C-alpha cells in the first residue's frame, strides 16, 4: 500500500524551503557590500528576491543624475527582451511612475514596486505576476523594501562603474600599438600625449618633456624608450638636481684616475652606462653651464671627454630630458644654453597636470590603492564613491605623486581600522586642507592655515622649490619661507 504524505508534512516542508530562500536572500544582500563583482552579485540577489516573493519576473533600474539622468543601469530576472521594454514603458505611467513621483512603495494587483533612494528616487525595484493567486503580501513588501534600501546604499558605486564602462576611451587606439601599462587613465589630455608618443618613440631623436612637478615625466620617458628602437638596451636615469655641481660632470661623463680628489680609479659615467640605450636627464635645467657644453657636444658630434681624458669617447645614446622649469626663461636669463635648448627640443612633449585630466582620477585611485595593498600586504580594499568624488573635486598641486602618497596613507589608515573601504576621512584626514573641501565648520585660523599651506606648496612646486623665486612671487622674506616650510611640514619629493 502506497502512503501519501500529509498536507501538514507538505506544509512544513514548504515553509522550511521558504525560510531557506529567505536566508539565502538575506545573505546575498549582506554580501553585496563586500564584493568586487557587484553587478553579478546584485543579479543573483534579484533572482533570489523574485524566488522568495514567488514573482514571475523582477526588474531593477537606476538613473545616473551625474550623467544628466540619461545613463542607466538595469538588471532583470525572468524577463524576455520584449517584457523588459514593456516594463520600461511604464516609467511614464502606472505603478512605476507613481513610485517615482511619490517615493513610496506601490502595490497594485499583480505589481509591486519600491523606490531606490529618497525623493526623488534614483530608480525602482519592480516585481510582477505572483505565481500564487492574489496580490503580493505584506511580507513581500518588506522583502522588496529591504532590497531597495540595500541597493540605495550601493547606488553611487554601481552608477560610477556603469558610467566608467560606458564612456569612450580615446586612449584605446594608441594603447593597441604601444606598451603603456604604466600610464593610467583615459582622458583626452592623456590621449593627446599618447598620440605624440606614437610619433616620437620610433624615431631615434632627442626629446624634451615638460610639465608640472609630479605629473609622471619619468614614466613618460620610460614609455618612449620601451616603444623605441633601443627598447632592449639600457634606460639610465640621472636627476640633475640631486648632485652637487662639483660632482655632476663626473657622474654624467665619468672621470679618469686622478681627475679629481675622489677619482682613485676610473669612474664610469651615466653616458657610458646608457651606451646603445637611453639616457634620461630629469631636471635638466639644473645642469651647470660646463656640463651643458659637454652635453651639447654629445648631441652634435656623438663624442664627449670624460674628466681628465686626453681623447674623446664615442657615445651611441638617445637623450630624453625633462624639466618643470621654463627653459625659455632660463635661456633669456643665460642660465641655460640656447643652442642646447633647441637641440633637446626636437620633438617636445608636455605632461598635463592632474587638474587637466580629472577624468583619470578614479582609475588612478584604484591603481594606487592596488599598489599600496601589494606593497604593504594589506587585505582587500576598495575606495568609496564619496571618496572618489571628493578626490575628483580636490586640488592636487603635487599631481600624481601627491595623489599616490595620499592613497597609500589612506589604505594604511583604513587597514589599521580593520575596514574594507577607504572613505573620505581616510583620504583627507586633516579637515580638507589638501582637498579644499570642507568637512565641517572651520575656524578663521584653521581656514587661514589651510589656505597658507596650499598656496605655499603650489608655489614651491611651480617654481621647482627655488626659494628665492618663491619669496619674490609671494613677496615674503626668504627666512619666512623657510619657517613656513617647517611649520607646515612641507617636503620636496624626488622625481
What structural keywords apply?
elongated, 20 helices, five-stranded parallel beta sheet, disordered N terminus, five-stranded antiparallel beta sheet
How does this structure look, described?
This protein has 495 residues and is α/β, with parallel strands linked by helices. It has 20 helices and 14 strands. The model is unreliable at 1-10, 66-71 and 431-441 (pLDDT under 50).
Task: Tell me how many strands there are.
Answer: 14
Q: Structural class, judged by helices and strands?
A: alpha/beta
Mean pLDDT: 81
Amount of helix: 40-55%
Strand order of the largest sheet: 2-1-5-4-3
- From the N-terminal CA to the C-terminal CA, the straight-line distance is 88 Å
> Taking Cα atoms only, what radius of gyration do you get, to the nearest Å?
31 Å
Which residues sit in consecutive blocks of at least 5 with pLDDT less than 50? 1-10, 66-71, 431-441
Which percent range describes the beta-strand content? 5-15%
User: Can you count the helices?
Assistant: 20
Write a brief structural summary.
This protein has about 500 residues and is α/β, with parallel strands linked by helices. It contains 20 helices and 14 strands. The strands form four sheets. It has a five-stranded antiparallel β-sheet, with helices on both faces. The protein has a five-stranded parallel β-sheet with strand order 7-8-11-6-12. The chain has a two-stranded antiparallel sheet with strand order 9-10.
List the helices and strands and how they pair.
Elements (H helix, E strand, L loop, with lengths): L6 H25 L6 H15 L2 E9 L8 E6 L3 H9 L4 H9 L3 E3 L2 E6 L6 E8 L7 H29 L5 H4 L12 H13 L6 E4 L6 H10 L8 E5 L5 H9 L16 H4 L4 E5 L6 H13 L1 E2 L8 E2 L3 E6 L3 H6 L5 H7 L2 E4 L10 H16 L5 E2 L1 H9 L5 H18 L4 E2 L1 H4 L16 H19 L4 H8 L3 H11 L7
Helix pairs in contact: 1-2, 2-5, 11-13, 14-16, 19-20
Amino acid at each position: 500500500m502506497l502512503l501519501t504524505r500529509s498536507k501538514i508534512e507538505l506544509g512544513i516542508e514548504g515553509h522550511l524551503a521558504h525560510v531557506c530562500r529567505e536566508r539565502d536572500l538575506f545573505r546575498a544582500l549582506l554580501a553585496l557590500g563586500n564584493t568586487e563583482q557587484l553587478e553579478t552579485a546584485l543579479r543573483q540577489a534579484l533572482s533570489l528576491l523574485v524566488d522568495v516573493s514567488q514573482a514571475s519576473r523582477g526588474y531593477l533600474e537606476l538613473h545616473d543624475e551625474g550623467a544628466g539622468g540619461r545613463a542607466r543601469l538595469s538588471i532583470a530576472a525572468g524577463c524576455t527582451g520584449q517584457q523588459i521594454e514593456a516594463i520600461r514603458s511604464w516609467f511614464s505611467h502606472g505603478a512605476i511612475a507613481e513610485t517615482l513621483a511619490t517615493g513610496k512603495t506601490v502595490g497594485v494587483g499583480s505589481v509591486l514596486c519600491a523606490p531606490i533612494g529618497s525623493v526623488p528616487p534614483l530608480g525602482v525595484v519592480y516585481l510582477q505576476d505572483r505565481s500564487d493567486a492574489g496580490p503580493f503580501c505584506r511580507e513581500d513588501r518588506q522583502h522588496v523594501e529591504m532590497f531597495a534600501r540595500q541597493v540605495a546604499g550601493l547606488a553611487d558605486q554601481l552608477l560610477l562603474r556603469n558610467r566608467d564602462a560606458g564612456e569612450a576611451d580615446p586612449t584605446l587606439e594608441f594603447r593597441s600599438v604601444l606598451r603603456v601599462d604604466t600610464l593610467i587613465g583615459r582622458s583626452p589630455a592623456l590621449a593627446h600625449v599618447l598620440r605624440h608618443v606614437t610619433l616620437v618613440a620610433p624615431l631615434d631623436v632627442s626629446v624634451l618633456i615638460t610639465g608640472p612637478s609630479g605629473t609622471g615625466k619619468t614614466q613618460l620617458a620610460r614609455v618612449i624608450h620601451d616603444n623605441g628602437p633601443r627598447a632592449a638596451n639600457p634606460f639610465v636615469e640621472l636627476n640633475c638636481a640631486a648632485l652637487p655641481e662639483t660632482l655632476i660632470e663626473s657622474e654624467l661623463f665619468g672621470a679618469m684616475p686622478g681627475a679629481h680628489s675622489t677619482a682613485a680609479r676610473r669612474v664610469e659615467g651615466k653616458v657610458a652606462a646608457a651606451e646603445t640605450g637611453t639616457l634620461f636627464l630629469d631636471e635638466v635645467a639644473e645642469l651647470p653651464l660646463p656640463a651643458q657644453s659637454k652635453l651639447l657636444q654629445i648631441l652634435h658630434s656623438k663624442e664627449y671627454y670624460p674628466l681628465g681624458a686626453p681623447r674623446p669617447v664615442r657615445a651611441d645614446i638617445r637623450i630624453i630630458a625633462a624639466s618643470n622649469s621654463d627653459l625659455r626663461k632660463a635661456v633669456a636669463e643665460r642660465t641655460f644654453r640656447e643652442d642646447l635648448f633647441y637641440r633637446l627640443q626636437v620633438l617636445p612633449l608636455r605632461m598635463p597636470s592632474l587638474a587637466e585630466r580629472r577624468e583619470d582620477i578614479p582609475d588612478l585611485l584604484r591603481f594606487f590603492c592596488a599598489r599600496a595593498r601589494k606593497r604593504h600586504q594589506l587585505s582587500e580594499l576598495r575606495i568609496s564613491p564619496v571618496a572618489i568624488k571628493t578626490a575628483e573635486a580636490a586640488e592636487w598641486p603635487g599631481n600624481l605623486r601627491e595623489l599616490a602618497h595620499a592613497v597609500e596613507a589612506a589604505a594604511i589608515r583604513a587597514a589599521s581600522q580593520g575596514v574594507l573601504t577607504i572613505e573620505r576621512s581616510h583620504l583627507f584626514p586633516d579637515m580638507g586642507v589638501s582637498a579644499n573641501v570642507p568637512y565641517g565648520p572651520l575656524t578663521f585660523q584653521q581656514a587661514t592655515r589651510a589656505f597658507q599651506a596650499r598656496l605655499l606648496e603650489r608655489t614651491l612646486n611651480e617654481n621647482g622649490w627655488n626659494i628665492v623665486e618663491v619669496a619674490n612671487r609671494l613677496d615674503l622674506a626668504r627666512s619666512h619661507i623657510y619657517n613656513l616650510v617647517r611649520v607646515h611640514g612641507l617636503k620636496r619629493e624626488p622625481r
